[in-house]
Structure formats: C-alpha cells, structure tokens
Amino acid sequence: MDLIIQAFLYGTCFVSFIMGLHETVQKDFGDVLFIPLYNHTEVKIVFQSSQSVKHAAFCKVHGDLVNCSSWFQHRVTVQDDFVNVNKLTPADTGKYMMSDLHGKNIVTMALSVEVYQQEYIEYAGKNVEISIPHKQPSILLFRPTIFGEPFQLCIIQNGSGLCHAGFTDSISVANNKIQVNDLTSQHHGIYELIHEDHNITLCNISVHIKGHKESVSLQPGAVLIINFYTHTAVVVQFVPESHQKSKRLLVNGTTIQDGNVELRSGYLILRSVTPAYQGYYQVYDLSEEHLYNEVKVIVKESLSIMEFHQGFENTEDKTLPEPETSMFITAMVLSALIIVTALTVTVVYVKGTKRRGKLVKSRTEPKTSTDFHRVQTV
Questions:
Q1: CATH code of 131's domain
Q2: Do 73 and 154 have their domain in common?
Q3: Does residue 377 lie within any of the structural domains?
C-alpha cells in the first residue's frame, strides 16, 4: 500500500515538472495578481484572453527588469520572487502561462476578475460625480431603467469623453470622472463601461434617483402604472386616502396582492382601478430608507359624464305637462304658423297686382306734343 502511495506522489510530481503547476485565481477589480517565480530569474509570461482568442500579450522578466507588450501598460513589476500584475480589470481575465528560457512551463494561472460595481442614490435635481476606475479606452453604454433600449452615451479616451448630442448639457466626462447634472428620470439606469478594443465590460455604475413626486387622475376601469426609478428590489406600499391601514403590494419582487397587480421590469401595473384605489403609492428600497417614488392617485369619472348624469337626474325630477295640455299647445303653435303664412302670401299678391297695374297704365297713355312733332319732322 505504501508503495502505491509513493508511486502516486512520484507520478504527480513528475507530471507537475513536465506540465507545470496549474492554479485558478479569482480577483476583484483593482487587485494584484501574484505569479510565483519559484527561484527562476529569467522567464517569459504569455497572457491569453478568455474573451478573445486573437488577443494575447507577453512579458519577459530578467532579474528585476521587465519588458512587456503595450497591453500591460507598465502594470507588471517584480518583487520578492513574484511577478505582480497590478490594477486588474475584467479585461485581464484569462490564462497566464509562465515558462523558463527552455520553454518548459513553470506555472499556468487561470484568472477571473469581477466587474467593478458602483451605486449612487441621489435626489432628483441633484448632481452626481462618478469616478472612472481605469484609464483604458472605453465606451460608456447607457441602459435606461424606465423604457428605452441601451445606447452608446460617450466615447472615453485618456479620462476624457465625447458624449451623445442629446445629453451634452447634462453629462460630461473629464479627468477620469463622469459628471451628471440636474438628475431627472431620463438619467436613471445602469452606465456600463466597455473596453473599446475587446468589447469587455469593465464596470457597471447604477444610478438611482429618489424623491419623485407624481399625481395621476384616472377613470374607473383604467390602468395604473407605478414607476420604481430603480432596477433593484423594492417595497411598494399603498396608503389609502380613507386613512385606513396601509398595505404592501410588492416586496423584493413578490406581489402580495394577486389578481389585478402585475410586476414588470422597473414598474408595477394595477388594472381595472376603482375609487378604492385612491391614495398614495410609495416605492422604497428593501431597507425602506430611500423613498424612490410617491404617486398620488385619484379615481373618479370625468366631469362631462358627471354633469350629464346630474343633468339627467334633474330632468327626471321635474313635473312633465299633461298630454292634453301638450296637444293644445301644439295646435296653437301650428295655427299661428298658418296665419302668418297666409298673411305673407296676401301681402306678396297685393304688391304684385299694384306693380302690374302701373305697367299697363304707362303703356296706354298718349305721347306728349313735343314727341309727336319730333315724329312728324322725321
């Protein structure tokens, strides 16, 4: 039995000598990767990206001197029998294979670097200053929480950026900082920094806007939408206008009330509202420390419909005239119309008769003596 164990250990050491050691390492954004030299003074390190097969880089180490390709950007140092790769980002995820001068593999390290996460919670109308945790050329992609598709917001080079024309008044990039001014609902979402050359997500920046105040007036049967103004888990609380005890409609993505309540990405839908839905709808984070949105809801019929019903009811209350009275009034009106029509026809007839008499008289009268003599002369 002892001979078998010794043989196994000898075989493991022999394989390690031939193929080198293999390690799997997971690091956070900005950490340092330590690659042991195992007393070697001259080595070569080849980096193979896990994101792109075509992307590779290398470093040659001779004592304390390091000569690396541009990818590492002077981030590699030698200290205490270790090669250190500093300021790690997700773009550094991949395999690091170190070999000696004869090409024998010493160690292979599989590295995984977490995407950097930042979160900002601020009131509407305030400003936010976001630090960029790296200097690599990148694209700032914006993913709106409330409707809309992701789109390219800024292109960043050497800590400065050129941003989308529609946001130049509110968003700027300079000195490795993203400045967002006068926060509104259009700024709420995730800002994703992507390495420009290798399409690798380096950083996710979440911006939450709190303190929204909204007021809506709906008719019975309409649909009510409650915006969260955050993409994280929330608590939605309903405070009835009738000062009854408040109740929760949503907690951490789980609806408390079934039926007419429907959860969507970034908002809540309540269908077929009634006057019982009147009140305040409050959207909090899970700790209920931050109030993201408060919606005042009024449910009532439109004024025109109310006035119509009121007028109809008033008409019903009035006493209608008796049928005989209605017939008598109708007959009187018709008689008056007939009399007026007859008088009009008579007046027109008399005027026409007088006009014809004048025409006949003018035709039968003799001409004057002057006219007669004019005729004789001719």
A1: 2.60.40.10
A2: no
A3: no
Could you tell me the residue range of the domain that residue 121 belongs to? 116-210
Number of domains the chain is built from: 3
Distances, alpha carbon 11 to alpha carbons 20, 170, 260, in Å: 13, 65, 67
Whether 100 and 122 map to the same domain: the answer is no
pTM over 0.85: no
Same domain, 256 and 184: no
Hey, is 210 helix, strand or coil? strand
Closest listed residue to residue 184, CA positions, set 171, 165, 199: 171
CA 271 – CA 108 distance, rounded (Å): 58
DSSP bridge pairs for 226: 268
pLDDT tens, N- to C-terminus, the chain (378 residues)? 444 434 443 444 434 444 568 999 999 999 999 999 999 999 999 999 887 766 678 899 999 899 998 888 789 999 999 999 999 999 899 999 999 988 899 999 999 999 999 999 989 889 999 888 877 789 999 998 776 788 999 999 888 889 988 888 889 999 889 999 998 888 888 999 998 877 889 999 999 888 888 999 999 999 999 988 887 888 999 999 877 788 888 776 676 666 778 888 788 899 999 998 999 999 998 888 899 999 999 998 764 544 444 544 444 444 444 545 556 566 666 666 777 676 665 655 556 555 555 544 444 444 444 443 333 333
Contact 225, 265 (CB under 8 A): no
User: How many angstroms separate the CA atoms of 134 and 205, rounded?
Assistant: 13
Note whether residue 324 is domain-resident.
Answer: no
Residue 24 sits in the same domain as residue 107: yes
Contact indicator for 244, 324 with CB cutoff of 8 Å: no
The reply to whether 186 and 131 lie within a common domain is yes
Domain endpoint, select from 245, 271, 299:
299
How many CA atoms does the CB half-sphere of 308 hold within 13 Å?
Answer: 5
Domain-terminating residue out of 83, 113, 143: 113
CB distance 155 to 142 below 8 Å? no
Please report whether residue 129 resides in a domain: yes
251 in helix, strand or coil? strand
CA pair distance 357, 349, nearest whole angstrom: 13
